[in-house]
Amino acid sequence: TRTVTEFDRVTDSVCPFCGVGCQTKVYTKDNKIVLVDGRDGPANENRLCVKGRFGYDYAMSKERLTKPLIRREDAPKRGDADMRFMDPLDIFREATWEEAMERAAGGLVSIRDTHGGGALAGFGSAKGSNEEAYLFQKFIRQGFGTNNVDHCTRLCHASSVAALLEGVGSGAVSAPFMDALQSDCVIVIGARPATNHPVAATYLKQAAKRGTKLIVMDPRGQDLMRHASHPLRFKAGTDVALLNAMLHVIIEEKLYDAQYIQANVDGFEALKAKVADFPPESMAEVCGIEAETIRDVARTYATAERSIIFWGMGVSQHTHGTDNSRCLIALALITGHVGRPGTGLHPLRGQNNVQGASDAGLIPMMYPDYRPVETPDIRAEMEDFWGRPLDPKKGLTVVEIIDAIHEGEIRGMYIMGENPAMSDPDQIHARAALAKLEHLVVQDIFLTETAWHADVVLPASAHAEKLGTYSNTNRQVQIGRPALDMPGEARQDWELIVELANRSGLDWSYDGVADVYEEMRQVMPSLDYIPWERLEASESVTYPSKPDGEEQWVVFDDRFPTADGRGRIVPADLRAPDEVPDDEFPMILTTGRLLEHWHTGAMTRRAEVLDAIEPEGIAAMNPREIARQGLKEGSTVSVETRRGTIEAVLRADREVADGMIFVPFCFNESPANRLTNPMLDPYGKIPEFKFCAARISAASMR
Ligand code: SF4
């Protein structure tokens, strides 16, 4: 623990970055954060990673938006022009709040009244609080009469959630990551916790140190493999081959739990028939792992007393992402490794509140608590509660909304804290869509790449300036508290949503954040027995809670939350990625994060320490591959796909497989998503960020 002597206030809060949900103490002096330290929260026990500890100063950046902005009549045409070096006042003029809100709401209402609510859409944010997410989706649904509301969960775990809802009736984790300490076997697949969930990774390393078998499966090497009993670097895009081969072994060698299956699971016979075609001896060549290793890993997982599976975007961000997750669910269901401490299924959530934002209904097919919008009884209940007729059909998802703008179907958008100009695949296409909108309202703390396209920009509140609840990857609801005053004329996000709603013809009145939370609880049974006062007193409560207050850290101990209480196996077929390397584009491009930067970089690139450690856009390749291609480490290279080209500094990295290029997606000067394939998984509607065909060359030689 570090010490600081000069401070005038200490605020108990939570980290604004990843889904681990570390509790923090924020020390401030003269309305500036001077230190952030860990608290003894259930997910971090005083620990913090480099982002939580040193990434706080973005909130105090000189680049914060402090006044409402309106696009000037004579501003340059919106589009894909690189506006980073332009003066914002060449594009926007400062406005009063009255004028900005009138313009913001007026534009949205005009489109609604002329073309119908279906011509509008909203992107909320998993960085915001549960209360903001709830209000945002309520505004879009109640105020515009459309379900066109989504957020970046569509880009991270949508396929995992689709498979989990189908298989076990709930998209949330079945056990917290700390349960790794009670496991005999831990599988980590398609996730890099040491980079993306660093404090969670410490629990996994601790488990391995105590003797837990740690199976790490990833086409790229990673830090956690040094601690693994079984490090498996399989070929990118062959997850189903590897996992079906494991299922084959477990069934062939009768290592499954017949009693558990009979009592709790449907679909075993169909799975048995499917995986009969996946013997490890045939799959070894496909996935690049020896047959005997596949057999060893399958036996280790199945025969352990308690096994748990963690996965991340390496599993989900594929056109076969739902199939990948279906295989993981099948592994847990046929071995009975679920519903007990130390067992389960845990998709590691990326953003600090991606779990909570999805729970709160910030998705186009579900109301709060995953109640389908297309079920008449449920819709009638919500219409009664919100007092307005609601859209009977599910809305469009993130990438579908971008396509619908190009088709002229969507004409106006309200975007809060989301940055699709950086985060969407096929970025040129996405930015062209934003440029095409008749009316775009962006609410944010910085003039992001998305805000450059706006008609009205509303300066909002940073995490360190607001009160709200956040739900981490473990289903722990925690309170974030304001440590700083807002700069200039910036306002609270939740108040801006309320004002826009009222200017759009609604009649909302809330007596603060706690009031919003209590309204949420009326339509979210998952928050039963967790009133605001309990959160304030406990700091962290895991949902669901029993009436006596007992928190259910492990769920599915009795039955699954499906219609008949049983789990359902859906066998998966092996399908190739949508775009495979060929003569023209012979390499595989994959994208991801760096330890120091978070998502589109809007926050961490404005955090001085973090940006000093990783200051520029890179493309990483194995040194062997660099030599083979006659390239030079440290030089500027061009990375090209069928969708676009970027330039980046070439980094030698032994963790990157031969034939592969890794590009992190946080650098706006080397935007990875200009390259990525927007093709969607048919179930989760998630794009294939993790695999497409690419080529690389020395920039100066082009
Ligand atoms: Fe923040 Fe995640 Fe790091 Fe914890 S592990 S300090 S929540 S970024």
UniProtKB/TrEMBL annotation:
<dbReference type="GO" id="GO:0022904">
    <property type="term" value="P:respiratory electron transport chain"/>
</dbReference>
<dbReference type="GO" id="GO:0046872">
    <property type="term" value="F:metal ion binding"/>
</dbReference>
<comment type="similarity">
    <text>In the C-terminal section; belongs to the prokaryotic molybdopterin-containing oxidoreductase family.</text>
</comment>
<dbReference type="GO" id="GO:1990204">
    <property type="term" value="C:oxidoreductase complex"/>
</dbReference>
<keyword id="KW-0004">4Fe-4S</keyword>
<dbReference type="GO" id="GO:0051539">
    <property type="term" value="F:4 iron, 4 sulfur cluster binding"/>
</dbReference>
<keyword id="KW-0479">Metal-binding</keyword>
<feature type="domain" description="4Fe-4S Mo/W bis-MGD-type">
    <location>
        <begin position="8"/>
        <end position="63"/>
    </location>
</feature>
<dbReference type="GO" id="GO:0043546">
    <property type="term" value="F:molybdopterin cofactor binding"/>
</dbReference>
<dbReference type="GO" id="GO:0003954">
    <property type="term" value="F:NADH dehydrogenase activity"/>
</dbReference>
<dbReference type="GO" id="GO:0016020">
    <property type="term" value="C:membrane"/>
</dbReference>
<dbReference type="GO" id="GO:0015942">
    <property type="term" value="P:formate metabolic process"/>
</dbReference>
<keyword id="KW-0560">Oxidoreductase</keyword>
<protein>
    <submittedName>
        <fullName>Formate dehydrogenase subunit alpha</fullName>
    </submittedName>
</protein>
<dbReference type="GO" id="GO:0008863">
    <property type="term" value="F:formate dehydrogenase (NAD+) activity"/>
</dbReference>
<keyword id="KW-0408">Iron</keyword>
<keyword id="KW-0411">Iron-sulfur</keyword>
<keyword id="KW-0677">Repeat</keyword>
